[in-house]
């Protein structure tokens, strides 16, 4: 949802700015641009399209300088044109600004500035910022104060960075959109996310809402809105650049699918005792006193939340999953006995953050299940459960889904035990199978027929995914992944719902991917038969030897394990189908059109 990068150091900024933009491109790729200041003016290069087009077209000599900012855009206000690309400047190019977020009162500020004679060249909300800074400079205030006063006028969410001609400082502010400082021996970075500068440093400072930061090549100063110094701890991130890179894979998505034996092992390591069946989950405090659990999430994380909801209910806990963006209008009653769990890979999804804040205001206890230490969700919730899946760069979420689902399953057992004194989950069997899970996933990926199935069913009218119980969120996730990266029409349904409407759409051109988790499989098989009767090919996702294989047109094998885990394994087969289908269609797999990895606007 837009990525911003800033660099101030003793060496030329251009290479690290471009590297940063490449590493941040997962946040948006509608346009890209950079601005560099070298004491003789600010030079800006920006254009619609990907960072690689920008890199190919710029003359680095024109962008000499040790202080600069850059931006990769996911459009909100104004289409992805050259004019709307960031950085934005004032008319004299004395000020350049990059922004991630939404300035809600920009229309009013823009009209005011236009009446005062300031000329606008873009349709963005961001362009008000350089003009506001310039107006303050025109009034004779020094650059840092001009920046602060401009920010004071803004309403909405933002991470903003600015440079001013003749100043060797970079100014930035954070309110509702992520911003992190990277500390290197020879200077500083500022970015929307750590992978932007991981090649250069792993020492970071996470900024908080309300923070202002001033970076010079020899120092960093963080203050609050009133200018009082603020202390923020330094952290060392435990991801390295190689881990965040693509390695030998063509796409991050395939790398991340293939990493699941490791990511799952990391997620569960040390969090349960296979001998006693006790679930420790780090040092999470007791959930005693909680009478109801509400999981809030979006997209893939919502499907993991649905998975967790079923596990919670099976454990004996009252639970519901709600789309975070529906929370304000459709949340059930909430009180001090409600635990609200924010399920969010990035920890920065605006919809999810808003929902969890509203829940906290109503007295709920809050917990985040997230991949990103230092994320807004982690910082704003009472407790945190980190999924430890490692960096996920592909816009399509894969390994984080399986880690979320498995940890929510363990968490269900823990919450049930804390709140009711017992849990109905078959924890003994689960623990035994969890020990085998990484190896089972590895074998599944190695032996998967997903590629040939993707080839066999290409060029169809529509793709349906069905399942029941744990198989339902898996089917929904299968369809989301498929449509997201292939751009083909795909829908996920509870298998029993097929006959209540969607069956009208089923034709011989509608492959039906059917998930069998080992629960009520005969009924799911009957639902699949309803599609077969209408000529649709059925692809059964089930263990070898399963009855469904006899009538199915094709089969994707999963190990025969407890339904709590078989859904996770089925998801991995469906991830592979989507990946190979998208590869055959030559899609931009890691950067699907119109999407961004981290959605920081509501
Ligand atoms: O970072 P989050 O888990 O909160 O993100 C939520 C969704 O935006 C995300 O899962 C999205 O649906 C994925 N791109 C789907 O692959």
Report on this structure:
The protein is of the alpha/beta class. The chain starts with a strand and ends in an 18-residue tail after the last helix. The chain folds into three domains: 3-236, Glutamine Phosphoribosylpyrophosphate, subunit 1, domain 1 (4-Layer Sandwich); 252-443, Glucose-6-phosphate isomerase like protein, domain 1 (Rossmann fold, 3-Layer(aba) Sandwich); 450-584, Glucose-6-phosphate isomerase like protein, domain 1 (Rossmann fold), CATH 3.40.50. The strands form four sheets. An eight-stranded antiparallel β-sheet has the order 3-2-4-1-10-9-11-14, covered by helices on one side. A six-stranded antiparallel β-sheet has the order 5-6-7-8-12-13. The longest helix has 22 residues, at 399-420. The structure holds 5-amino-5-deoxy-1-O-phosphono-D-mannitol. 5-amino-5-deoxy-1-O-phosphono-D-mannitol (M6R) binds next to helix 9 and helix 16.
| CATH C-level of the largest domain | Alpha Beta
Radius of gyration: 25 Å
How is the CATH topology of the largest domain named? Glutamine Phosphoribosylpyrophosphate, subunit 1, domain 1
Write down the overall geometry: globular
Descriptors:
602 residues; alpha/beta; Glutamine Phosphoribosylpyrophosphate, subunit 1, domain 1; Rossmann fold; 3 domains; eight-stranded antiparallel sheet; six-stranded antiparallel sheet; 19 helices; 24 strands; binds 5-amino-5-deoxy-1-O-phosphono-D-mannitol
């Amino acid at each position: 949802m837009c990525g911003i990068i800033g660099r101030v150091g003793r060496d030329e900024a251009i290479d690290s700015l471009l590297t940063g933009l490449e590493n941040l491109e997962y946040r948006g790729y509608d346009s890209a641009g950079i601005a560099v200041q070298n004491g003789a003016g600010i030079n800006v290069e920006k254009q619609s399209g990907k960072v690689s087009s920008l890199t190919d077209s710029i003359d680095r000599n024109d962008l000499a300088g040790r202080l600069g900012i850059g931006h990769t855009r996911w459009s909100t206000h104004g289409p992805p044109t050259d004019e709307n690309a960031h950085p934005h400047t004032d008319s004299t190019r004395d000020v350049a600004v990059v922004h991630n977020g939404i300035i809600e009162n920009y229309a009013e500020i823009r009209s005011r500035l236009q009446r005062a004679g300031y000329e606008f060249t873009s349709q963005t909300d961001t362009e008000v910022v350089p003009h506001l800074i310039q107006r303050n400079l025109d009034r004779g205030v020094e650059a840092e104060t001009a920046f602060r006063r401009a920010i004071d006028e803004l309403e909405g969410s933002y991470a903003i960075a600015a440079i001013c001609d003749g100043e060797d400082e970079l100014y930035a502010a954070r309110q509702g959109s992520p911003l992190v400082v990277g500390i290197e021996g020879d200077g500083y970075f500022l970015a929307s996310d750590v992978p932007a500068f991981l090649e250069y440093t792993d020492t970071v400072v996470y900024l908080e809402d309300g923070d202002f930061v001033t970076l010079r090549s020899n120092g960093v100063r963080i203050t609050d809105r009133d200018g009082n110094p603020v202390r923020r701890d330094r952290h060392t991130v435990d991801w390295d650049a190689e881990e965040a890179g693509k390695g030998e894979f063509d796409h991050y998505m395939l790398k991340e699918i293939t990493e699941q034996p490791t990511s799952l092992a990391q997620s569960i390591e040390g969090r349960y005792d296979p001998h006693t069946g006790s679930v420790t989950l780090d040092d999470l405090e007791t959930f005693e006193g909680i009478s109801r659990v509400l999981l809030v999430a979006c997209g893939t994380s919502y499907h993991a939340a649905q998975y967790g909801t079923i596990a919670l209910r099976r454990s004996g806990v009252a639970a519901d999953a709600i789309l975070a963006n529906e929370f304000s209008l459709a949340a059930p009653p909430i009180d001090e006995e409600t635990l609200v769990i924010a399920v969010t890979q990035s920890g920065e999804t605006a919809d999810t953050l808003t929902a969890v804040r509203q829940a906290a205001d109503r007295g709920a206890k809050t917990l985040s299940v997230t991949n990103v230490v230092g994320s807004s969700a982690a910082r704003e919730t009472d407790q945190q459960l980190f999924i430890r899946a490692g960096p996920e760069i592909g816009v399509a979420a894969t390994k984080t889904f399986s880690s979320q689902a498995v940890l929510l399953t363990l968490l269900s057992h823990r919450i049930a035990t804390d709140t009711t004194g017992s849990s109905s989950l078959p924890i003994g069997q689960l623990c035994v199978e969890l020990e085998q899970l990484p190896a089972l996933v590895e074998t599944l990926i190695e032996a998967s027929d997903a590629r040939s199935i993707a080839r066999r069913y290409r060029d169809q009218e529509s793709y349906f995914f069905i399942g029941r119980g744990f198989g339902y969120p898996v089917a929904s996730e299968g369809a989301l992944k498929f449509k997201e990266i292939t751009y083909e029409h795909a829908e996920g349904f509870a298998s029993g719902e097929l006959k209540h409407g969607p069956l009208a759409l089923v034709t011989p051109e509608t492959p039906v991917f059917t998930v069998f988790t080992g629960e009520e499989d005969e009924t799911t098989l009957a639902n699949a038969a309803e599609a077969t009767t209408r000529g649709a090919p059925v692809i059964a996702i089930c263990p070898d030897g399963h009855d469904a294989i006899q009538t199915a047109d094709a089969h994707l094998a999963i190990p025969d394990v407890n339904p709590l885990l078989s859904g996770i394994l089925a998801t991995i087969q469906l991830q592979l189908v989507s990946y190979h289908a998208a590869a055959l269609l030559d899609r931009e797999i890691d950067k699907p059109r119109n999407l961004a990895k981290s959605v920081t606007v509501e």
